[in-house]
Amino acid sequence: MRNILVVSVNWLGDVVFSTPVFRALKAAYPGARVCVLAVGRVREVLELSPDVDEVIVQDEGRGFSGALAAIPLAWSLRARKFDAVFILRQSLSRTFMAWCAGIPARVGFPSGPWTRLLTHVADEEGCDLIHRSDVYLRVVEAFGVKVRDRSCRLVARRDALESILDKLRAKGLTGDERLVVIHTGGNWALKQWPEASFGELTARLTREVGVKVVLSGGPSDVARVRRIAALSGVDPVILAGETSLKEMAALFKRAHVVISADSGPLHVASAAGANVLGLFGPTRTEITGPRGQGRIKVLRHDTHCNKAPCYYLECADNLCMRSITVDDVIQTFKILKS
After folding, report:
1. CB contact at 8 A, 91 and 7
2. What CATH number should be reported for the domain whose range is 158-337?
3. d(Cα 73, Cα 98) in Å, to the nearest integer?
4. How far is CA 308 from each of CA 128, 261, 304, rounded to the nearest angstrom?
5. Which conformational region is residue 273 in: left (phi greater than 0), alpha (psi within -120 to 50 degrees), or beta?
6. Which of 258, 253, 224, 255 is nearest to 238 (CA)?
7. Per-residue pLDDT for 316 more than 80?
8. Rounded Cα gap, residues 274 and 14, in angstroms
9. Where are the beta strands (DSSP E) in the chain?
10. pLDDT digit string (tens) for 79-135?
11. DSSP letter at 179?
12. Rounded to whole angstroms, what are the CA distances from 161 to 127, 194, 272, 294?
C-alpha cells in the first residue's frame, strides 16, 4: 500500500485525538503517503502532525446536499489513485464520495444503507464508553492495522516558535521568564471555569508562585480574557486573538505549564509536549482526557450529576465546574511542577 487517504473529523480536539491513526498507518506501511481530507478550520493542526504528508481541504456539507457536493471532489480523488480510505466518523456524504472515487479499500463505521459502500466495517459497539482516540483507531484496526502507540503527538514549527518569541518580546518579556499559559475558553459554556476563578488564579500565580501568566485564546475569547485580566489586578500578558493555531501550539510548547478546561487547545498543548493541568466538569477524562507527550494532571470533582458525560447546555448553576476551587488548582500546579 503506497497511497492512503484518511477522512478527518471536524473539531480541533477530535483532530488531535485522531493523530495516532496517522502514526499507526505510517508504521504499518513504511514509505506510504498519508493524505488527510479535512475541513479548512482544522488544517493548521493537521499540518503539525509529523505523520501527515498532505492536507486536502474539503468544503463542509451535510446530508444529501453534502453527498452531491462530494461528487466533483470524488473525481479529483479518483485521479490520485488512492489504495485505501479510512473514514473516521459516520458520514453519508464522505462514504458516498469514497465510493465514487473508486478507492478499492473503504473502511469506516456503519452508516445505515450506505454501509454497503464500505469494504471493511469498524465495530461501533461500546464506542460511547472508550476514549475518542480509541474510537478512531478502531477504523484502522478493522483493516488489520496493529496499534502500538496511542499517544497524541504534534510538533511545533520552528518558524512559529520564533514568531511567538517575537510576540512575547513585544509584550516586554525577555524570553527567560517562567511562563504559565492559561487558556480560558471552551467550545461550550458548560465546560468553562468561572471568570472570577480565572482572575484569582492569575493573581495568585503571579504573586505567590512568581510566574508570568499569559492568557491565550482565539478572537472569540478576547472580551472574556480582558475581563479576567481586569479581575486579576495584576498584569498578565494577553495574546488572545493575536496568534495563529500554529503559534498557539508553539506558545504552549514554550510554557512551563498550560492550564485549561477541556478544550481543543488543551489537547493541542498536551500533544505538542506541554505539561498540562486540565479542569474538567461535565466531560470525563476516560473519553476526552489529554493523551499527549508532557505531564498531565486533571482536576475533576464528582458532583453526582456528572457521573456520565453531561451535555445539558441549559444547566443554570454549572456546579461541576464551580466545585473546582482556586486552591485546588494551585495545589495541583505545585504537584505538577515538583
Report:
1. yes
2. 3.40.50.2000
3. 10
4. 10, 17, 9
5. left
6. 224
7. no
8. 18
9. 3-7, 33-38, 54-57, 84-87, 105-108, 120-121, 179-183, 212-216, 237-238, 257-261, 276-279, 296-299
10. 999 999 999 999 888 888 899 999 999 999 998 888 999 999 999 999 999 999 999
11. E
12. 37, 30, 12, 18
How far apart are the C-alpha atoms of 145 and 150, rounded to whole Å?
13
Q: Which three cell numbers stand for residue 83?
A: 489504495
pTM assigned to the model: 0.94
Per-domain boundaries in the chain: 3-141, 158-337
Q: Where are the beta strands (DSSP E) in 71-210?
A: 84-87, 105-108, 120-121, 179-183
The C-alpha cell at 237 is 500578558
Cβ proximity of 215 and 184 under 8 Å = yes
By the 8 A CB rule, do 7 and 74 touch?
no
In the CATH hierarchy, which fold is given to the domain comprising 3-141?
Answer: Rossmann fold (3.40.50)
What residues does 181 pair with on adjacent strands? 214, 258
Per-residue model confidence as pLDDT tens digits over 237-248: 999 999 999 999
Taking the C-alpha atoms of residue 192 and residue 2, their distance in angstroms, rounded to an integer, is 44
Q: Contact 86/7 with Cβ under 8 angstroms? A: yes
Domain pair 3-141 / 158-337, same fold: yes
For residue 329, is pLDDT > 60?
A: yes
Given pLDDT bands bounded at 50, 70 and 90, which one contains residue 225?
Answer: very high
- Please give the biggest Cα pair distance in the chain: 62
Q: Is the pLDDT confidence value at 49 over 70?
A: yes
